[in-house]
Write a structure and sequence with these properties.
The structure holds 2 protein chains of 2 kinds. Chain A is mainly alpha-helical. Chain A has 20 helices and 2 strands. Chain A has a two-stranded antiparallel ribbon. Chain A is globular. Chain A starts with 7 loop residues before the first helix and ends with a helix. Chain B is an all-alpha fold. Among the domains of chain B are: 291 residues, no CATH class; 136 residues. Chain B contains 22 helices and 4 strands. In chain B, the strands form 2 sheets. A two-stranded antiparallel ribbon of chain B has the order 1-2. In chain B, strand 1 and strand 2 form a beta hairpin. In chain B, helix 1 runs antiparallel to helix 4 and helix 13 runs antiparallel to helix 15. About 5% of the residues of chain B have low confidence. Classes of the chains: A mainly alpha, B mainly alpha. Chains A and B meet through helix 6, helix 12, helix 16 and helix 17 of A and helix 5, helix 6, helix 21 and helix 22 of B.
Chain lengths: 491, 700
């Protein structure tokens, strides 16, 4: 029975979330207390099941010999699970202050808490079927969050979101069927689970299936040409954009791609094949398009969303190298980007709440009015650009090192892409920072900024804490990198 | 060796001091000024403490590769010079910024810049250097833009653009260097590279690394930011930028030339040629300038060129490079002190008149003997007149070129080096000419026009005692260096030989021998000729008995405005647009026909077999066709957005401009959601269903 603790963090929020929805609360404080306690309890539960319980296998339900719903915590789950379960309570605190400016808080927090459990389900799933299941649940649970505003814009975004996701699921389903049909056991195993004897000489077919499945999961990871939903979904309230569309949902996509590549198909089938080159090229194209579109976009939230598109493909580029270093540095960038981007989105949300301004030219000169918000924005922005010694530099450096190591023309092109993209990133981040701190005088004319100030304590403190965390993990990446190297070692 | 925590202290203390002085400044302005003074004084004392003392500091896991500091030798010279400049500039700042806004910000970023500059000078590998180099670039950006005037903003944007592009190039070079050599430590790299036969890739990486450092130093062709940014910054910040920040670039170039590519003639030739161009170009631009601080900035450019010529010569001379090496480091020291003096003088002028154009400030200093004396020291120093500091280092550099010619220069032929020698002497002459021009304007010419206000204030209230003391100390230092070179400058050179890859010379140089004086004499004659024949005749004119300085430099002859900005902002986007257009047209034309052919074949097969799999196939082909559409669209997007982020409107359905909400969502059509590509999703679902059916069919 002890092993069922792994199931708890998945199921608990799912059930507990109905507490929030159950009755209309008279005052918000009570609902907030319930929400935060559910989230904190679940964080503790998931941290216990990650660190206190040794690797246990929990079979929940068996359809047939090969079709099981099962959970297991391995190294990769540890990384993703820890990241998510630490960021969730922080975002909840931020959301309390943010959502007090919006309506329908109850519905919001219900689905917000529910998504927590489902994301943990993705992290802890032991086989493809379970992961696929929770992966689809995640789409459904986050849809009400995306459409929260319930106006034409939000409906449009929601429609786009669901159609893209379902299209992706259809493609991923092909991979699911193939993996289940052609593998010995279906549980994830580093190095791949496909049965080579059954495949015989049909490796290229398998690779084609891999590519199709890659695009299927790639919808959530926002690879070219399936990333359009992400900037559109920036219409959602900021906590959703920050946590789900910079961390949980999009990184489940990346997580699924890692599971698919290293734990299901196996790097040895894909290495040095056209399948590898395809996803490398796709990652590079996405990096450039994401950065380019980010510069073009003057709506700050959507600019950051495009930046997410580009940064997710840094991780995918790392993964596509099919080497230990590539996977480890991809994971490092996953963690760095999670912390940095969530902070950047929080800052944007704070600006939105305090000033109702969304475009770059509107925020000219308010940097000195909101020093803490823009100070943190600058530090995290530098990290995103990859200015040493901030977080973000080291992961990009490691991705480049791994790319050189595999000694392939496309990988060298990838380094060039990284450099170009770093320049573009500098352009789209620093234009915001410079506009905020050093306004052009004509932009300030006829505008009253006297009321603009830093937000309340919850927003400020979460932003500061995350910035400090990003600086610390940027300064001392060695422990993290060590953990990731161990995870990637048995490739 | 044990970790010496003073080195870490040198870097972190000013940064912490910046934070503290910022907090103090929120409450009390004058206490903040004193706090900043105390911080720089303590920094100066700490730097003196480790001067000449050889110690190291490692922090291994920091930011992955670890940071490594080293002290002693040339680093002592650089750090002492830097903290001296900072000390003087900070003391001067109190008066200069009296009526400025945002002084807290200025002091904070100035102190953080000090810490990061120390980090660059103390670093013993490229990674450490780059970390602090980047921090320094960003914090000094705030110093440049401090005025927030449109001019300052444009200059600061150019500065940050050059810094980021340069930094990125350095990072790329460093990365490949690390990959090939396995280390980034200066001296270890030198050993590995000299032992390696295939040097060509290392040269490429070296040039990449050089780009960032050279850009910061102001080397041609990335010098464009320097004549804009230095005048735009407030005077103490200009002094810091010009005296120290350019030297961080020089430090990087020295590390590359004297450690990594030690005694490498080809690399020396590369540095020499860039140095020669920069040296002449800076002097030439300065002659034409009619702005006091711009002249000084162009002069910095030229002096950086002199230093790089020396560094290049020390590479060419190989083992016997002690003259060139000493010339390089001594010119660094001299230029720091002299330019500090001159920029602070310009600061005095600006804080009283708020003008810098020579026509506006003409004759302002006629009745101010102290300022005149100090400025004259600077003039004589930088023009290389015997008995003043600049003469010593310029003589050493000149002698190193002469020595190379005398040894029958093995690299590139003698004509080149004769030419270099003459360019050197002419640049020296131009230095005297443009300095005389601004000196004459400020202190000699009379302002006769009655229309203009009379600048002259009472003699003693144009600057306070602290500022006067700062100016006098700097000015005296120049002449002390010049009068007693053996007691001062030779010692400084003595500690620097180790880093510069040379052995101390057997006997000290006779600076005031006839041979050495000859070079200075030639320069003076050239300078006098240029001033009296060219400047007086072509750049000045008499209007109603009043001398007017003409700005005859053609507006179009500006490498930034006529080449860089158009290329980056116009030509590249245009090419990108053309390529994207052609490519997408070609794709539009060819791909659909291929797809249609495939569709025809598929329908033929469909009629042949009539099973579910082919529904899938057709759907697949449709998806591929869609992908091709998206691909051509994507290629267009890439090229368009990479090269052209100005708004250019497209026609028809490929209109990417942002509307109020989303690019694919328009409220024009009565709130309808338009333009959404449902084809994709339907195709995807169709495709998914089709393929699954196909698989089921196959399996069953």
């Amino acid at each position: 029975m002890g092993s069922y603790i792994t199931v708890l963090p998945v199921v608990f929020p799912f059930i507990a979330s109905f507490l929030i929805l159950a009755k209309p609360f008279e005052n918000k404080t009570k609902m907030r207390w319930i929400t935060i306690s559910i989230v904190v309890i679940n964080t503790i539960l998931s941290l216990i099941s990650i660190y206190a319980v040794p690797e246990t296998y929990t079979n929940v339900f068996t359809f047939s010999e090969k079709l099981k719903i099962a959970f297991k915590v391995d190294g990769l789950s540890t990384v993703f699970g820890t990241m998510v379960s630490i960021l969730w309570p922080i975002t909840t605190l931020y959301a309390f202050e943010y959502m007090s400016h919006e309506k329908d808080e109850q519905r919001f927090f219900t689905f917000f808490v529910m998504s927590f459990g489902i994301t943990m389900g993705v992290a802890f799933s032991a086989n493809m079927l379970t992961m696929y299941l929770f992966y689809e649940f995640l789409t459904l649970a986050t849809l009400p969050l995306v459409m929260h505003e319930m106006d034409a814009k939000a409906f449009h975004a929601g429609k786009m979101y669901i159609i893209f996701m379902m299209g992706g699921a259809a493609m991923a389903f092909i991979g699911l069927v193939i993996i289940i049909s052609y593998s010995d056991g279906t549980d994830f195993l580093m190095g791949g689970i496909l049965n080579l004897r059954e495949i015989k000489n049909n490796l290229d077919v398998i690779r084609l299936v891999y590519i199709i499945t890659f695009f299927g999961f790639g919808v959530k990871a926002a690879v070219f040409p399936l990333f359009f939903w992400l900037p559109t979904a920036a219409v959602a309230p900021t906590p959703v954009t920050a946590l789900l569309h910079a961390v949980a949902v999009v990184k489940s996509g990346v997580f699924a791609i890692i599971r698919l590549t290293y734990f299901s198909f196996g790097a040895y089938i894909l290495r040095d094949s056209w399948a590898q080159y395809t996803i490398m090229a796709i990652a590079m194209i996405t990096i450039l398009i994401g950065s380019g579109m980010a510069i073009k976009t003057s709506h700050i939230k959507r600019r950051l969303a495009y930046s997410t598109v580009s940064n997710l493909s840094y991780i995918i580029f790392g993964i596509s190298l099919m080497s230990q270093g590539g996977l480890a540095s991809g994971l490092l960038h996953m963690v760095y980007h999670a912390v940095l981007k969530i902070t950047l989105f929080f800052c944007t949300g704070a600006i939105l709440v305090q000033t109702h301004r969304e475009y770059v030219k509107e925020i000219e000169g308010i940097g000195t009015k909101m020093p803490i918000i823009f100070g943190c924005f600058t530090i995290c922005g530098m990290g995103l650009v990859g200015v040493p010694p901030f977080a973000g530099f080291h992961s990009k450096w490691n991705i480049a090192v791994s790319a050189v190591q595999i000694n392939n023309l496309l990988a060298y092109a990838g380094i060039f892409v990284l450099i170009v993209s770093a320049l573009l990133t500098a352009l789209y981040i620093f234009t915001i920072v410079i506009a905020a701190f050093f306004p052009k005088s004509e932009a300030l004319r006829g505008r009253d900024d006297t009321m603009v100030k830093d937000p309340g304590i919850l927003m400020k403190s979460t932003i500061i804490v995350l910035t400090v965390v990003s600086v610390i993990i940027g300064f001392f990446p060695t422990p993290l990198l060590y953990v990731f190297d161990v995870i990637a070692s048995s490739i | 060796m044990e970790n010496n925590f003073i080195l870490l202290f040198l870097v972190l203390f000013p940064m912490a001091g910046g934070v503290v002085s910022y907090i103090i400044g929120r409450f009390n302005k004058s206490a903040r000024n004193y706090a900043a003074d105390v911080v720089v004084l303590a920094e100066f004392a700490a730097v003196l403490l480790v001067f000449g003392q050889s110690s190291v500091f490692h922090l291994n896991s920091f930011c992955g590769l670890g940071i490594n500091f080293e002290s002693g030798g040339i680093r002592g010279v650089f750090t002492v010079a830097a903290s001296f400049v900072w000390l003087m500039a900070t003391f001067f700042s109190a008066e200069y910024f009296k009526n400025y806004r945002n002084r807290n910000r200025y002091y904070f970023f100035m102190l953080v810049t000090l810490g990061s500059t120390m980090g660059v000078f103390l670093s013993s590998d490229f990674f450490t250097a780059l970390i602090f180099f980047e921090i320094m670039s960003f914090t000094s950006f705030v110093l440049v833009i401090h005025d927030e005037s449109p001019k300052a903003q444009k200059a600061a944007m150019t500065y940050i653009a050059v810094a980021i592009i340069g930094g990125m190039a350095t990072l790329a070079g460093m990365f490949f260097m690390y990959h090939s050599a396995g280390t980034l430590n200066f001296s270890e790299l030198g050993k590995i590279i000299s032992a390696d036969n295939g040097k060509t890739p290392y040269y490429i990486y070296g040039v990449l690394i050089f780009t960032g450092f050279g850009a910061k130093a102001g080397a041609f062709p990335l010098h464009i930011w320097l004549p804009e940014a230095h005048p735009a910054a407030p005077a103490p910040a200009s002094a810091i930028l010009s005296c120290v920040l350019t030297k961080t670039g020089i430090f990087g170039v020295m590390a590359l030339s004297c450690q990594v590519f030690m005694h490498d003639a080809r690399w020396g030739m590369f540095i020499l040629s860039i140095g020669t161009i920069t040296m002449f170009l800076g002097a030439f631009l300065a002659v034409f300038s009619v702005d006091l601080k711009r002249t000084l900035a162009c002069s910095s450019l030229s002096q950086i060129g002199f230093i790089m010529v020396a560094i290049g010569m020390s590479g060419l001379l190989g083992e016997e490079n002690s003259l060139a090496a000493a010339g390089a480091i001594l010119h660094v020291v001299n230029h720091s002190v002299i330019k500090l003096t001159l920029f602070l003088c310009a600061g005095v002028v600006y804080m009283n008149t708020h003008k810098l154009n020579l026509n506006d400030i003409k004759g302002w200093g006629r009745d101010k003997p102290l300022l005149k004396f100090v400025f004259l020291q600077g003039l004589l120093g930088i023009a290389g007149i015997p008995l003043w500091g600049g003469y010593i280092s310029k003589t050493l550099i000149h002698e190193s070129i002469v020595e190379y010619i005398a040894h029958g220069g093995t690299h590139g032929g003698l004509t080149i080096f004769n030419a270099v020698e003459w360019i050197f002497l002419i640049s020296g002459g131009l230095t005297l000419a443009y300095m005389t021009k601004i000196f004459a304007a400020l202190f000699v010419e009379k302002e006769k026009s009655p229309k203009k206000e009379n600048h002259s204030l009472k003699n003693d209230c144009y600057m306070n005692k602290v500022s006067s003391a700062v100016l006098i100390i700097c000015a005296l230092l120049i002449s002390v260096f010049g009068i007693a070179p053996h007691a001062t400058l030779d010692k400084i050179a003595g500690v620097s030989y180790g880093f510069l890859g040379s052995v101390p010379p057997d006997h000290s140089v006779h600076y005031f021998s006839l041979v050495n004086l000859k070079g200075a004499f030639i320069s003076v004659v050239i300078g006098a000729v240029v001033y009296f024949v060219f400047i007086k005749k072509f750049l000045m004119s008499k209007e109603a008995g009043n001398t007017v300085y003409k700005d005859v430099w053609p507006v179009w002859l500006n490498i930034e405005n006529s080449i860089y900005r158009p290329v980056v902002l116009k030509i590249l986007p245009t090419i990108g647009y053309a390529v994207a257009g052609t490519l997408s047209k070609a794709l539009d034309f060819t791909l659909p026909s291929i797809i249609d052919a495939a569709l025809t074949v598929a329908s033929f097969l469909y009629s042949l077999f009539e099973n579910l799999l082919l529904y899938g196939l057709i759907a697949l082909v449709k998806v591929i066709r869609f992908m091709c559409d998206v691909y051509s669209y994507g290629v267009q997007l890439v090229l368009y957005f990479l090269f052209n982020y100005d708004d250019i409107s497209y026609d028809g359905e490929r209109d990417f401009r942002e509307d109020a909400y989303f690019s694919r969502y328009s409220e024009d059509k009565h709130g309808e959601i338009t333009g959404f590509r449902e084809n994709l999703t339907i195709s995807l679902i169709m495709f998914g269903i089709g393929v699954v059916c196909g698989l089921v069919y196959l399996i069953i």
